[in-house]
Write a structure and sequence with these properties.
The chain has helices at 3-19, 24-38, 60-72, 76-83, 87-91, 100-109, 115-123, 135-150, 157-175, 184-187, 204-210, 246-254, 257-266, 277-283, 298-305, 334-343, 366-383, 406-409, 427-438, 464-474, 494-499, 519-528, 542-551, and strands at 155-156, 180-183, 192-193, 195-200, 218-222, 226-230, 236-240, 319-323, 348-354, 387-395, 414-418, 445-446, 477-481, 504-507. It has 552 residues and is of the alpha/beta class.
């Protein structure tokens, strides 16, 4: 059992004790323990048991519980609480805007035990009768539930990609290599997906018997042209059956509904008899449009007027921009991050640990900045020609100001400014903070511009056009945060950014060496927006990047 899981168990224990109305001091002690465990530099499983109670926050019974988890893989007091709590009440912890104390009221005073019941109670305006539940709170809870329920059964592209090879191989084994092709949202590289879609060149009467096994998937839909299954992991698998021409079928099911409707209305004869997708586009007099661009009908007009751009590729990323080390909340030391970059063939690393306002992430004080810069200077001498650039992910404070004085900001090669606190704000408030930040002469890059977390947090409301215009006016780069839960700036705003000559930067926001791999998801998302490597900051060579930094 690793530190993260132990910390998660203590965090859940604290929340469930609050839900049950237990002693607040005791519940807080477990929350504090979780915090300290998350920030430990060494794995608890490698720590002698007798030393564990001496670790800060793990004295007494808490230390014994850590040892219990290490020895048994379980925490009995947590298991007992889970068993005595209705599953629907625990599920409420996933609803944004409802904390454990409110859940206690919902369960014990409102006598509501499921998320569905809670939504119904919101619709009947029942929550406002209870202390601490005004109209605004009720509306926020309703919106949180609707958002949560809407995304049940949805997967991040990165999550779907884990399942894909096994499913793809299984289908090809069942129906033959040339009789199966992936299509739909996965082929378009959508950021989130509800289902994985395939063309199968066989009638449904032949397909269904193939899925008969000891544990067959659940058949949700059985229509003339498709079968929809639900796999044991919750993933939905749609098989388009009865097709005879793979090129036609794959084309028709790959594009979005709007794209296909526009294409067929303009080029009604292009599909008939085509043997490949290249034939389809050739008959329409268009260059080949990659699947990732078959989202919006407007691409048809662009393709008619000019060539499709050479889309950025993962190999076009030359340096790692936006990364964290153990100086703040990263898992690897600065030297390990640098050597990890070198091992993967990158030319430079921009280290951007958190600023001091991010106390939860061990944000850097002015003194620690000086110490880190000394280490960077030493490493740059050792690792040349590889180079580490001095940066910071500087918090944009509530009034739009930055987390350090101008003198401190001037000590960095470049500054990434991001919002991490007070995310619940109006568009007017959000834009005030963002515009003021990008107007600061020290800011080089605006990090994850909306603060969204895919499938779990919408992010604060942003006027994208105004924000992009401001970045253009002040020469600020817009980040495409490559973490698969962020992918923020959203790809749909890339064309407008390019129109305004705003430079973009695909950055992994890596908190470990493994985090560098997220670059790929940022590239896939950027391809949907038509990004070319020449408009991407992290595609610059070391010499080009050094020249860029000197100008900012």
């Amino acid at each position: 059992m690793d530190n993260a899981l132990i910390a998660d168990n203590f965090s859940l224990l604290s929340k469930l004790m609050d839900i049950h109305g237990e002693n607040a001091f005791k519940t807080r002690s477990y929350s504090i323990a979780a915090y300290h465990i998350e920030n430990l530099d060494t794995p608890l499983r490698d720590t002698p048991h007798e030393l564990i109670p001496g670790i800060r926050g793990l004295s007494g019974s808490i230390g014994q519980k850590v040892i219990e988890m290490l020895d048994t893989g379980k925490l009995s007091v947590l298991d007992e609480l889970i068993a005595s709590t209705p599953p629907g009440v625990i599920e409420m912890l996933h609803i944004k805007g409802i904390g454990p104390k409110k859940i206690h009221t919902i369960w014990k005073e409102m006598e509501i035990e499921t998320v569905g019941e809670l939504l119904y109670a919101c619709d009947e305006n029942r929550l406002t009768r209870f202390k601490g539940f005004g109209e605004k709170t009720q509306q926020n809870i309703r919106e949180g539930i609707e958002y949560y329920m809407q995304h049940q059964g949805h997967f991040l592209f990165a999550e779907m990609e884990v399942f894909f090879p096994q499913i793809d191989g299984y289908l090809r084994k069942l129906f033959g290599e040339n009789n199966v092709a992936v299509t739909g949202a996965y082929r378009r590289q959508d950021l989130t997906l509800e289902q994985l879609e395939y063309i199968v060149l066989a009638p449904a009467t032949e397909v269904k018997p193939k899925f008969v096994s000891a544990q067959p998937p659940e058949l949700l839909e059985d229509t003339e042209h498709s079968l929809l299954y639900k796999l044991r992991n919750g993933l939905k698998l749609r098989l388009y059956t009865g097709e005879t021409n793979m090129a036609e079928a794959q084309f028709r099911h790959t594009g979005s509904a709007d794209f296909i409707a526009a294409f067929e209305s303009r080029y009604p004869q292009a599909l008939a008899g085509s043997k490949t997708e290249a034939d389809v586009f050739a008959k329409a007099g268009l260059p080949h449009i990659p699947p990732c661009l078959r989202e919006l009908p407007g691409i048809l007009d662009l393709a008619k007027d000019k060539p499709i751009p050479d889309l950025i590729q993962p190999g076009d990323i030359k340096g790692i921009i936006h990364s964290h080390s153990t100086w703040s909340d990263g898992s690897n030391t600065l030297e390990e991050m640098a050597r990890g970059c070198m091992d993967k063939g990158f030319e430079y690393l921009v280290i951007s640990d958190h600023s001091k306002a991010a106390a939860y992430a061990k944000g850097l004080s002015e003194e620690r900045i000086r110490q880190q810069h000394e280490e960077i200077d030493r490493l740059n001498q050792q690792l040349a020609p590889f180079r580490i650039f001095k940066s910071i992910e500087c918090d944009i404070l509530n009034d739009g100001s930055l987390d350090y004085t101008d003198d401190v900001l001037a000590s960095f090669d470049l500054v990434i400014a991001s919002v991490h606190s007070n995310l619940k704000m109006t568009e007017e408030k959000a834009m005030m903070r963002l515009i003021k930040a990008v107007s600061h002469p020290a800011v080089t890059i605006l990090g994850h511009p909306t603060g969204r977390l895919l499938l779990s947090r919408r992010g604060y409301p942003v006027d994208h056009r105004m924000l992009i215009d401001a970045c253009a006016a002040h020469g600020v780069v817009l980040e495409i945060n490559a973490h698969p839960r962020r992918l923020d700036l959203d790809w749909q705003w890339i064309p407008y950014a390019l129109e305004k000559n705003v430079l973009l930067s695909i950055n992994p926001d890596a908190h470990s060496i493994e985090g560098f791999e997220d670059i790929r998801y940022g590239v896939l998302a950027a391809q949907k927006g038509g990004l070319e490597k020449r408009f991407n900051l992290s595609s610059k060579s070391l010499a080009e990047f050094e020249a860029f930094v000197k100008k900012v």
